[in-house]
Amino acid sequence: MSARRILVRSVVVLALALVLAGGGFFLWASVAADRSMARSFDTHEVDFPIPFPLDPAEVAREGLTDAEAEAMALERARERGRHLVEARYACAECHGADYGGGVMVDAFPIGRLLGPNLTRGQGGVTPGYSVADWDRIVRHGVRPDGRPAVMPSEDFLRMSDQELSDIIVYLESVPPVDHEVPPSRLGPLGRILMARGEIVLSADLISTHDEPHPALPPPAEVSVEFGRHLAGVCSGCHGMELTGGRIAGGDPSWVPAADLTPSGLPGWDYADFRLAMLESRRPDGSEIREPMTFVTPFARNMTEVEMQALWMYLQSLPAAPELEGSRRSP
Ligand code: HEC
Ligand code: HEC
Fold first, then answer.
1. 247 near 235, Cβ under 8 Å?
2. How far apart are the C-alpha atoms of 67 and 270, rounded to whole Å?
3. CA 75 to centroid of ligand 1, rounded, Å
């Protein structure tokens, strides 16, 4: 055999081996990802009123009848719920502006992760949900049937019972939308990332599924405690310690999240922070990029007290050491 033919043959054999190994690897990743999504999680069974009733002292003081007190409780819960989803918990970001279904990630090799219809219209998944089912999906990342969801529920871990109750009241009040949303699907890269543990499901990230949730949120005042409560929704992208870095499971084109501790925002004051949140602009005038820009429309609905509490909390954090990839390059 000539040297050339041996060379050609080795190249063919090598290519074949690579394809087989690649195929085998992908098959393994696929099976591992399917197995991961087919697991069943045990969570506690919580119950709370929908809506939360008025304070009995107020009912007595105002001399309200039961019917008046109930109607007022419902109205207040709906208004609180509207503010919660419009300024803070951002369900519309993935479930659509009309809550009739939306997109979390639609990027081919990662997959199509779609937010189902949350209204009472056709294709809505929540009619028939018990209070425990709402708790499972929103604060544990677990579907009513016990299987893990791809929704980043760790963002909602600090949500109190009253807040969740308010959100349920609000969602039940929005106009029904008829829209069937197809099930979420992981693409080949999504499966490989999941098999390699680079996409971590919320149900795994949330370490306890039986710890009681607070009944009420901290008082809405400019305090570190309230700020910490509000910052729960920043951790899905900025990390549990808010030190920034690559956004796991996000669209591959997204830039890493910034370090939000004092080391990441050196020299910033409250006005700089406010401008960044409302106008997506840094003190030096540079633009803050996607996906932080998804947060801006919600931040614009925050109250001044919420914005100041958030800043007070960020300023109270220990400065993070400069982490690899945790800073933007404008
Ligand atoms: C970052 C995107 C994102 C946000 C924000 C988000 N969701 Fe979801 N949600 C999803 C995705 C994606 C699914 C589908 C999960 C799956 O198929 O594994 C989902 C599923 C659901 C389901 C249906 C679970 C089922 O299969 O029965 C409910 C209910 C739900 N979300 C409620 C909410 C509420 C309430 C909020 C706001 C507090 C919210 N979501 C915020 C992405 C999101
Ligand atoms: C969907 C993901 C996501 C969420 C949720 C999110 N951020 Fe960001 N944020 C980012 C990314 C990515 C950057 C970096 C953008 C860039 O480099 O242009 C960023 C940048 C910022 C910056 C500018 C810092 C700088 O110098 O670049 C601030 C301030 C900030 N985020 C605050 C917050 C706060 C507060 C919250 C919660 C209320 C939050 N973010 C929630 C993704 C997110």
1. no
2. 45
3. 25
- Distances in Å between the Cα of 226 and the Cα atoms of 27, 60, 268, 274 are 47, 30, 21, 17
- Tens-place pLDDT, residues 54-95: 999 999 999 999 999 999 999 999 999 999 999 999 999 999
First to last CA, the chain: 58
Paired residues of 142 in beta bridges: 148
Among 37, 50, 94, residue to substitute to test ligand 1 (most atoms within 8 Å of Cβ)? 94
Distance 151 CA to ligand 1 centre (A): 5
Residue-wise pLDDT tens digits, 217-259? 999 999 999 999 999 999 889 988 999 999 877 777 899 999 9
CATH 1.10.760.10 fits 219-330, yes or no: yes
Question: Three-state secondary structure along 283-322?
Answer: CCCCECCCCHHHHHHHHCCCCHHHHHHHHHHHHHCCCCCC
User: What distance in angstroms lies between residue 269's CA and the mean position of ligand 2's atoms?
Assistant: 16
Helix (H, G, I), strand (E, B) or coil at 248: coil
Distance 82 CA to ligand 1 centre (A): 17
The pair of three-digit structure tokens given for residue 215, joined into one six-digit string: 């009944």
Rounded to whole angstroms, how far apart are CA atoms 11 and 16? Answer: 8
Which residues neighbour 145 within 8 Å (Cβ) at sequence distance 6 or greater? 40
Q: Which ligand is nearest to the CA of 279?
A: 2
Helix (H, G, I), strand (E, B) or coil at 29: helix
**Would you mind telling me the total number of residues written for the chain in this entry?**
330
Cα–Cα distances in angstroms (integers) from residue 288 to residues 168, 295, 296, in the given order:
33, 11, 10
Residues with C-beta less than 6 Å from any ligand 1 atom = 89-91, 93-95, 104, 113-116, 118, 125-126, 137-138, 143-144, 149-152, 156, 167, 183-184
Does the structure show a pLDDT above 70 at 40? yes
Mean pLDDT over 12-29 rounds to 76
